[in-house]
Write a structure and sequence with these properties.
Rossmann fold, alpha/beta, 430 residues, six-stranded parallel β-sheet, 14 helices, Alpha-Beta Plaits, Dihydrodipicolinate Reductase, domain 2
């Protein structure tokens, strides 16, 4: 009698349901490639009777996912709920303690509890696989753990959120406002219909940055405060001005070793339109690594949607079926180190500053004098008057300055009656 690998899926949202269907459709293909037979023996979600795109077998349905572990013999558990705490954490923790392999795309869970959960997996000689947690279908984590394992990586950066990249691309392409394009992204399934905040505010990308750091630099997941900004404040006006300057706005995630310290950030950046990263459009993600002796490596692919995510989830499953038991972060937890954080005050960039002001004499000199006081040197000024409304838009491109100088300099503009709104700041990525 052929032994089956028993699989449970916890969470039947867009990704979980797509995965469920893929497992059913590709059973034969998986068996051919691994020599192992699989079967789904348990599924769990909030609502058993919810109308779903794919039909589910309700005889395997559990309202409480924790009961699956108590009542069923499970070999592999897919956690596809997506919470950083609560039931997501509980089910993964319990599964690992019961020597069940776990596969998850849950970057929030791994970024917050990855160190603890990886220790559990190692103690119980099972896998905790999370390839799908970063950059959808791009095998970047496997590349860092295996393909680039003997290289000394000093930097990982790129576009890590397909939703925001689609919005920024579409704003430029269609000449539509942020709100209109966001609605379009929601209708297409690229952004959450209810609350897309975690994509837009940079949190999603930042969780991925922390996972990439841990794999690239063999460090424990960092907990220190970092620069994290999203794209909510990017206006169509900024997109147009960037275009005039032969630049393009992208949400970048950056992780870098600087003088033996760890620097991590997510923020919008203006990049050259002719650069590689400047030409990554739509829902595409791109991850670039820099190291020795390999130099620069680039991986690009779709970073959003159930298809690419399921591709990575199934890749993790095949690895387990081939009896590849490995440390979740590539090396033993005991050998992963703490790296001192970089002082973010010293982060240096040229700046794009957009001021909306009253069209009055002395306003420009007020701004330039303030910049000079904080040793922020001006490279270029663009003034666009709106005489009808007695307003003007002033755009200033600066030479390189530190984060602390720019923060302190701009703080005064909150209080000035001639400055109609707080200036928009976008860093220029060199």
């Amino acid at each position: 009698m052929n032994k089956f690998t028993n699989i449970a899926i916890v969470g039947l949202g867009q990704i979980g349901l797509y995965l469920y269907n893929e497992l059913r459709l590709k059973r034969k293909e998986i068996e051919i490639k691994t020599g192992k037979k699989i079967r789904i023996v348990a599924i769990s979600a909030k609502n058993k009777n919810k109308k779903r795109k794919f039909k589910i077998d309700k005889k395997f349905f559990y309202s409480n996912p924790l009961n699956i572990i108590k009542e069923k013999k499970i070999d592999v558990l897919f956690e596809v709920i997506g919470l950083s705490d609560g039931i997501s954490q509980k089910i993964v923790e319990q599964a690992l303690k019961q020597k069940i392999h776990v596969i998850t795309p849950n970057k929030a869970l791994i970024a917050k509890h990855g160190d603890y959960l990886s220790k559990l997996a190692e103690m119980n000689n099972v896998n905790l696989n999370f390839e799908a947690s970063v950059a959808g279908g791009i095998p970047i984590l496997k590349t860092l753990k295996e393909g680039l394992a003997t290289n000394r990586i000093n930097k990982v950066y790129g576009i890590l959120n397909g939703t925001t990249n689609y919005i920024l691309t579409e704003m430029e392409k269609s000449n539509q406002t942020f709100d209109k394009v966001l609605k379009k992204a929601q209708n297409l399934g690229y952004a959450e219909p209810g609350n897309p905040k975690l994509d837009l505010n940079g949190f999603d990308a930042f969780a991925k940055v922390r996972i990439l750091s841990a794999l690239a630099f063999n460090n424990q997941i960092s907990k220190h405060k970092c620069i994290m900004e999203g794209i909510e404040k990017i206006d169509l006006k900024d997109i147009k001005i960037a275009n005039q300057l032969n630049l393009r706005i992208k949400l970048l995630g950056i992780s870098e070793i600087i003088n033996s310290t760890l620097f991590e950030t997510v923020h919008p950046a203006m990049v050259n339109k002719n650069s590689y990263i400047g030409n990554v459009s739509g829902v595409m993600n791109a991850v670039i690594t820099q190291g020795k002796p390999v130099g620069e490596s680039v991986l690009q692919g779709e970073g959003a949607g159930p298809g690419p995510t399921s591709s990575s989830l199934l890749s993790d499953l095949l690895s387990i079926l081939r009896d590849n038991v490995n440390n979740p972060f590539g090396i033993s937890s005991s050998k992963r180190k703490k790296i001192k954080p970089f002082n973010n005050d010293n982060y240096t960039n040229s700046l794009y500053l957009r001021f909306e002001v009253k069209d009055k004499s002395g306003v420009l000199s007020l701004i330039t004098n303030r910049l000079a006081r904080y040793k922020i040197s001006i490279k270029r000024i663009i003034q666009t008057p709106d005489k009808k409304n007695k307003k003007a838009t002033i755009v200033i491109i600066t030479h390189k300055t530190t984060e602390i100088n720019s923060r302190n300099c701009l703080s005064i503009f909150k209080k000035n009656k001639n400055i109609l709104k707080f200036p928009t700041l976008v860093r220029l990525y060199n």
